[in-house]
Structures are given as structure tokens and as C-alpha cells.
């Protein structure tokens, strides 16, 4: 193995470790916090973390073996099962992110009717559709034997073996990526841009009130006034930054791989091995970044993790005490809306 192969293997190991730990933390927070379990968005977050965790445990190790051995590391049946799971889990995570954006859109744009528009039952129905949608395409690919080991991506995935099936496989691949990646991207852009519009409107109202207050307080110290103006500027940038992270991480992680798979459909195009593996690692990196983008950096999850750590430490320090630290945290829905 050359230096480039070693670096790719180390990158994948890093992604695997971060993804495993971060997604386990999200699931741990969900189990220990009553308030998080009460939130409808928690259904989407658990489904997203669960799929990412399965992708980490069942797919990433075999891709790592493919990079290290430079050949198919598994038998035919196991490879087909791994490829089936990879297609299903990747599509399911994309649709879960789209469902999260819909939930956020309803919460911000229709706050007064959120509880009636987005109930637990509605979340379960959305996730049920996500699972059925995601299962359809890998089942079709198994039926036509389009799941096999690909040397370009060093993994078991959608792969065309017979040229006579190229036209049918091309139609299948385009429809699959259109109804998973493109559909999710359109939903993300529509919902989050609507959220950004509402956030900017509220920021503008707050800015007007702030400026009127500063005009009335003629004796205010210049440093305090400057601090207020700086906070005003940060408030305007905060919503844009968050929306950019949501959409940008989706495009950066999935975009190169999807575009590569579509270009690969052209019979005269040959994909470079290193680029194929890098694009595959980028899709895996989404599983590692999702817990931070959607959960662990939020104040509510930070509080739950801190309470878990405190409970463990107090239990070790005072084993005979009757202290029982509550792991429930306050619902940060209102805070998240204003942010």
C-alpha cells in the first residue's frame, strides 16, 4: 500500500471513531432525558443517529478492509448484504435530515399551530415513509443483481457488472439519486430559507428596539453601547451561519459522491480510484458530523451530558448517599427558535 492509501485508511479510522462515539452520545441523551424524548424532533434525531450508527458499525469497517487489502474483503452474500444496507441507510439519513428541516420550518414559521401540525403520530408517519422509500431501491437493486464490490469505491455498493444492463441501471441510478439526494436537498433549501427569512424579520424588529433604546439612554457608557451594537451584528449572522451549516454540510458531504456516481454512468468515463474512495469517505463523514450539527452542540444536549457526567462522578464519590440527580433538562424550543 502506498502513502495515499495509508492516509485514506487513517482518515476513515478517524471518521469511524468520531461517528461511533458521537452517535452513541446522542442516543444516550435521548434515553436519559425525558424532555428530549417529549420533543417530536427527537424521533427524527434518533432515527438519524441510529442509521448513522449502523452505517458506522456495518459499512465503514468493510470499506476500511477494502482499502487495506485492495480487493474484495467479503464473500458474495455478505457483500450483497453490506451493499444493501449502505444503499438503505444512506437514503434513510438523507430523508431524516429533510424531515428535521420540515419540523424546524413548522416550528418557526407556524409556532402557534406547531403542536397540531407536527405531532408524534405525524413524525412516526414521516419516518415510516422514509423507511419504505429507502427500502424500495436496495430491494430493486438486489433483484437485478446490481449490488457488488466496486474497486473504485473499495466498498460493496451499487455496481453494474454486465454492459447489457447499462440502460436500465442508468435509469435506476438517476431515479434513486433524484428521489433521495435531490428531493432532500430541495426540501432543505426550501424549509431553511423560509426559516432564515423569519429569523431575519425578528432580528430586524429587535434591532429597531435596540437602536431606540440606545437613543433614549443618552448617558450610557460608550463601551456598553458598542457591546450592544456588536451583539446586534452577531445576532444577524447567527441564523445565516446555522442555515449555511445545515445545507452546506449536506452538499459538501454527499454532493461529490452523487455527482461521481452520475458521471460514472457514461460508458467512456473512468473514475480515479483515489477520488472514488475520497468521495466515499466524505459520505461517511456526514455520519460523524450530524450529531454535532443537529444535537450535541445545542445547549439542551450539553446540559444532559453534563448532568450524566455529574451523576457518574457523584455516584462514585458518594455511593451511600441518597442523592439522585435529575437528567431532565428544560425544553429549549423557544431558545432554539430565537437563535
TrEMBL record:
Domain G-protein coupled receptors family 1 profile: 22-294
Transmembrane intervals: 6-32, 44-68, 88-112, 124-147, 169-195, 243-263
A Pfam short name: 7tm_1
The keyword Transmembrane appears for this protein: yes
GO MF entries: G protein-coupled receptor activity
Subcellular localization(s) per the UniProt record: Cell membrane
SUPFAM superfamilies associated with the record: Family A G protein-coupled receptor-like (SSF81321)
Name the UniProt record assigns to this protein: G-protein coupled receptor 26
Taxonomic source organism: Patagioenas fasciata monilis
Upper taxonomic lineage: Eukaryota, Metazoa, Chordata, Craniata, Vertebrata
